[in-house]
Inverse folding.
C-alpha cells in the first residue's frame, strides 16, 4: 500500500517537459478523510524524498504532520529538557 503519491495536477501528457509543480499527496492519521498535499515546484527529487520520508514515518508509526503546529511547551518540560540536552554522562 502506498501512503504518499507524487503527481502533477495538469493535463500535460509528458511530465518531463511540463512546467507545472510536483505535488505529494499523503494521508494523516485520520484516514481517508484527512488528506494533505505539499507542492515542490520543479524539483522531482525533493518530492520523492518527502514522499519516502512520509511513508517511512507512517510505517514506523512516528509520523508527525509537518503542517500541524507543534503544541506549546510548558515551563516544566522546557526546564526538564534543558538540563538533559548535551550534558555528558558520568
Amino acid at each position: 500500500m502506498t501512503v504518499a503519491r507524487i503527481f502533477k495536477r495538469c493535463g500535460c501528457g509528458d511530465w518531463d517537459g511540463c512546467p507545472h509543480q510536483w505535488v505529494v499527496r499523503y494521508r494523516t492519521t485520520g484516514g481517508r478523510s484527512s488528506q494533505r498535499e505539499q507542492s515542490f515546484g520543479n524539483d522531482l527529487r525533493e518530492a520523492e524524498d518527502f514522499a519516502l520520508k512520509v511513508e517511512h514515518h507512517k510505517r514506523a508509526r512516528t509520523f508527525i504532520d509537518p503542517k500541524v503546529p507543534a503544541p506549546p511547551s510548558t515551563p516544566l518540560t522546557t526546564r526538564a529538557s534543558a538540563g538533559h540536552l548535551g550534558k555528558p554522562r558520568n
Summary: The chain has a mean pLDDT of 75. Residues 4-81 form one domain. The chain has one domain: 4-81. The chain has two helices and three strands.
